[in-house]
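Quick one: structure for this chain?
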Amino acid sequence: MFRIRQIDVTATGREIVRERLVEQPRLTIGRAAENDLHLPDLALDPIHAEVVDAGAGRIAIKALSPLAFTLDGEGTRAASLSARDGGELGFGGTRITLSEEDGVPVLTLRAVVGLEHTDQAAGFSVASLLPGRRRMGWIAALLILGFLLALPIATHMLRGPPPGASVIGDDLWSPGKLSLGHHKLEGKCETCHVKGFVAVRGETCRSCHKETHDHAAPNLLADARGQVPLGRAMLNRVSAAFNRPGPGACSDCHVQHEGPDKTPPVRQAFCADCHKGLTDNLPATTLGNAGDFGTLHPQFKASVVTNADARSRNRLSLDAHPREDNGLTFPHRLHLSPLGGAARMAVSLGGGSGYGKALTCANCHRASDDGVRFKPIEMERDCGACHSLAYDKIGSTVRTLHHGDVAQALADLSTYRGAMPLTRRQRPGAFSDGGIYHASFSAPPVPMTAFAKNGVCGTCHTAEMRGGRLAVRRVTLPGRFMGHGWFDHRAHRQSKCSDCHAASGSSVSSDLLLPGIKTCRTCHAGEDVSDRKMVPSGCALCHSYHPADAPLQRNAKTRIVREGG
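Got it. Here's what it folds into:
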């Protein structure tokens, strides 16, 4: 039986004593965890020695490994001593004092501080052969400065002109591989880092990204940030002293050397720093405050056509229920009704013509190749199946009006002399006695009849007199209504058109069938949202920091104005 007493010392010098009674005649000592006296010391073997109660108050200690232990400071491999007389055993950095209390041998274990300077420790480590810690620290610091700073600087200053000349150790300065967008510049540091020890400047970025412009004028960007806190202002001054560009630099957002992955979208907080208090910092702005799509975002503003003839457009809030003047006379309700004449015509045309049942949005609105937007409406492709422009037949030749060319249409109609059945297809509206769609231009004069309200042209267009000549109002159909935001129809293909666009109830073409922010908020919330049913939506989901000003482009064939992008 042995009494084991473990003494530990805290950082403040207070001793902590733990005792336990081991009722067995033999104990093993070593650094393996299964030993009775576990001493985690690399100077010991896994099972280093054993302690045996030899009876009559004597204790026998024997080494079980090639390494010895110490007894009262002298090395030995075996010893026998009286527990009453006591003694001190040394095993690596631990001292075991032998004593006796109430006839029970007591082994008191205490770690020795500063053992690394003793002769015994020197036999198990190289610490005694190395310089002191302070000296080692200075040596390491000088090596780092030499190899990582002095050597690259020297080779940079002494090398010849690139390419070909390299800088020794410059790879150690790189924080990582270039991001996916610039991976082709890997190893061509001078492309961006034009000057040594000078951060990448904005003008260097713009030398390649020529089409990228500022988010706003520099003075507006500075005012929009508002009062800069004192701590931030001091950091900006320190950064400028070390050649780092100030706030608003390209590198603030476009952090490179992040590995060959796509750059993550900018966090919402970056935009909110300016935009959540924009009206206070920029009182003259026409923009509203925006900090979170779910809680702080203004109603959408659409670029609405207010005069089709002048092709003028104004950005108007959807809260004002703006009306659109696109130059057309077109009722969505008539075409989408499942029981109206348009539905009957679609059924009669059949599946071979791409119809066969009541009209849907997809019959006229055809997705672009990338699925993001929709192609311009073309009369011949999207309307001609029901609204024929044929007006005469000579032999086997069917004469057709030239859509979009008013002067040519007037010239063609001026030579027409009577009504003649052309086809057995039916359409909503006028029918002949035999149910045959035909052009009937008798009196008044043929051109005026064609451009009348229910005529071939007047069904969709509005005729007017300009300078004593018959003309048609221009048609202006925007390709984008919200030029300051981005919307991807492809990402919403699981939804029906009617979920967002109330087209089936629209009877006039002036209805602006755009959903407001309330509709979008049924699915989209801010960037940090706890509801799993909602879609987290940060600013970068719909907005770009460098929006391109898309000019209006005219499609000469259809005379429809589209907005690029």
